[in-house]
Amino acid sequence: MNSAATHFPGPQLQGTATLLLAGERLELLPEGAVWWRARSTVFLSDTHFGKEATFRSAAIPVPDQTQRILQAMERVLVKTGAEHLVVLGDLIHARRGRCEQTFRQIAEWRQKFSAVTWTLIRGNHDVSAGDPPANWQVRCFPEPFSMTPLGLYHRPELATGASMAGHLHPVVRLTGPGRDSLRLPCFLLRNSTLILPAFSSFVDGRVLRATPGDEVFVLADQQVTKVM
Q1: Cis peptide before 133 (omega within 30 of 0)
Q2: Helix 66-80 × helix 100-112 angle, to 10°
Q3: C-alpha to C-alpha distance for 220 and 228, rounded to whole angstroms
Q4: How many helices (H) and strands (E) does the chain have?
Q5: Is the model's pLDDT at 139 over the cut of 70?
Q6: Of 12, 61, 170, 178, which is most buried by a Cβ count within 10 Å?
Q7: Is the pLDDT of residue 5 over 60?
C-alpha cells in the first residue's frame, strides 16, 4: 500500500483528497465516491435503494431518499465525466423494498446516463433482494471482481491485496474540548483496502476503532479531509 497527500498534475476536482493505491491515483470525492481518472470509473457503495419502502411496508413512515441519492450520483457522473459506474454492493436494500415508484425513478434516471456502463458487485443485501430490473442496464457480478491492479469487493474482510470495498458504512466520532462530539462518514484505508462510506445517508454507520496504520478521510462541508 502506498498513500500520499501530495498534489498531482492536471485539473483537480474541488474538495477532494487524493491517495495512491497499488500505484494508481484515486480521488476521494465529497459525495462519498471514488474517481479513478485513469480508468474513467467512479466507485460508490451501499445505496440501499428501497430501504424506505421496506420500512413503509411495515407501516413505519419515513421520508424517501431515492431522489437525493440519484441527484448525488448525477453530480458525481457529470463533474467527472465517468464512462463507468461501479457500485460495491448493496444496491437494493431488500426484496420487500422493490417498490414500483422507486424502481421507475431509477429507470428514468438511468435513461439520462445510458452511455455509462453500470456494474454491480453483489453485496449481502443484493443476494437476498435480487438483481435490479433489466431496464436499469446493470451488469452484476459476485465478489471479488478484478480491475487490475485493484480487487473489488463488498465485504472488506474478504479483501486481499490492493482493493476497494463497502459494507461497513464507516463513520468517525470527533470530539471537541467541551465534550461535544460529531459523527461523520469517512473513507477508511486499512491494510491496503479502501473502504467507502455508505452513499445513502439512511443507513447506520459503524464507528471506527482505529488501528495502527489506518488512514481516515472525513466527509464534511463538501470537503474530504484526512484526520489520521
Answers
A1: no
A2: 10
A3: 15
A4: 4, 16
A5: yes
A6: 170
A7: no
Residue for grid cell 476521494: 28
Q: How many CB atoms lie within 10 A of CB 196?
A: 28
Q: What is the CA radius of gyration of the chain?
A: 17
pTM for this one? 0.85
The answer for residues whose C-beta is within 8 angstroms of residue 45's C-beta and 6 or more apart is 87, 88, 89, 90, 123, 154, 165, 166, 167, 196, 197, 198, 199
CB atoms within 10 A of CB 42: 26
Cell 455509462 identifies what position? 116
Residues linked to residue 216 through DSSP beta bridges, in sequence order: 188
pLDDT at 95 over 60: no
Which residues does 79 contact at the CB level (< 8 Å), separation at least 6?
13
**Is the pLDDT assigned to residue 189 strictly greater than 90?**
yes
* Residue ranges of domains in the chain, CATH in brackets: 17-168 (3.60.21)
Beta bridge partners of 219: 224
**57 φ/ψ angles, rounded to the nearest 5 degrees:** -65, -20
